[in-house]
Amino acid sequence: MMNKKPHLQIAFVLLIISYPTWAWAQSTTESRASQAFDEAVRLHGEGSRTSLQQAVTKYEEAIKLWEVAGKELEQARALNNVAAIYFQNEELDKAITTFLRVLKIFEGTNGGDHIEVGKTLNNLATVYSARGDLQNADSMYDRALPIFEKQLGPTDKTYLKSLNDLGHYYRQQRRFERAIRMFEKQLANEEKHLAPDNPDLAITLTDIAICHLELGSVEKAEPYYRRALALREKAFGPDSIEAAASLNNFGAFYSAKGDLVRAEEYDKRALAIFVEKLGPEDGMVGHTLGDIGMIYSKQRKFSAAEDTFKRALRILEKSHGTNSSILEPTLQNYAQMLRDAGRPGQAEKIQKRIRGLTRTELITQP
């Protein structure tokens, strides 16, 4: 199913802050601070371990000079970048301590609902999450979101994408209730400025449905899937790639419901469209074949299941390489089929291959 394609780990990028220094250079001290800051940003941008260490030294020089000049906001911006380097170097405790200093300055200078406060809360959430402190990460995100909504507006694209990214972040952690809250808030805000038949709504509807399905709330998932399919068929046509994606999701729905006949029907409809529109070797063909293989396995049609899994893997390997983590869902289902078929030795070979897959966890900007 399309929902099996792995999502990137969701968080917020720790951005290097660079500001024009001509506006600050009102005294010799400020001018020296600005020069040190500019040099720090240049070194920071080089990105090597040595240049990052040198950047921290230059940032600290700028911070001390701005402290003498009484420029708190400039200190905060330099501290932000120092914290970002600590994060990059996996010195998470130092990053948290430094971001807390930044937060205190921004709150004291700009007020608690300023956009810079929201950005710093997001940065803190990122670091807490990386440290595995989900309670503090959640607290930071929960404080940041209302600030972004107030300052950017509930229908701002950046704010909506932040909600979507957080939804996927929580879904990746299998914290589906929080994920649903993010996606439902996103949907409510999208509906304020999009036409009711806008197909873009189908993406968020599908995200909500997937979370309900993962929770085992099959009946709650159905109306979201149905609305998404109707939107895509109306906008793009019943034989479109977009409609096929929703058909494929319905395959997952009926499979979870135990209706394997209808699951197979929907997945094969999706497969035919993907083959026609994208070609027989496209990755989506591979993913859909993997879904059909799982259906055959549940039906105990082990020979057909194995043939289908092998065909799916051949396509996915061609699209993504033999060591990509994108292969994992299909390999896991193949291994389970082998166990169900009484072939544990061969299943263990597949599991060994899974353990050797390359996994990359990226951070994406909201």
Structure in words:
This protein is mainly α and 366 residues long. The chain folds into three domains: 1-18 and 28-152, Tetratricopeptide repeat domain (Serine Threonine Protein Phosphatase 5, Tetratricopeptide repeat, Alpha Horseshoe), CATH 1.25.40.10; 157-262, Alpha Horseshoe (Serine Threonine Protein Phosphatase 5, Tetratricopeptide repeat); 279-359, Serine Threonine Protein Phosphatase 5, Tetratricopeptide repeat, CATH 1.25.40. Helices cover 75% and strands 0% of the residues. The chain starts with 27 loop residues before the first helix and ends in an 11-residue tail after the last helix. Mean pLDDT is 89; it is low at 1-13, 21-25 and 360-366.
Salient structural properties:
366 residues; mainly alpha; Serine Threonine Protein Phosphatase 5, Tetratricopeptide repeat; 0% strand
Question: Outline of this structure?
Answer:
The chain has 366 residues and is mainly α.
Helix and strand arrangement:
Blueprint: H1 28-46, H2 49-69, H3 72-88, H4 92-110, H5 115-131, H6 134-152, H7 157-172, H8 176-193, H9 201-215, H10 218-236, H11 241-257, H12 260-278, H13 283-298, H14 302-320, H15 328-340, H16 344-355
Helix pairs in contact: 1-2, 2-3, 3-4, 4-5, 5-6, 6-7, 7-8, 8-9, 9-10, 10-11, 11-12, 12-13, 13-14, 13-15, 14-15, 15-16
The average pLDDT score comes to 89
- E-strand count: 0
Number of structural domains = 3
What is the annotated CATH architecture of the largest domain? Alpha Horseshoe
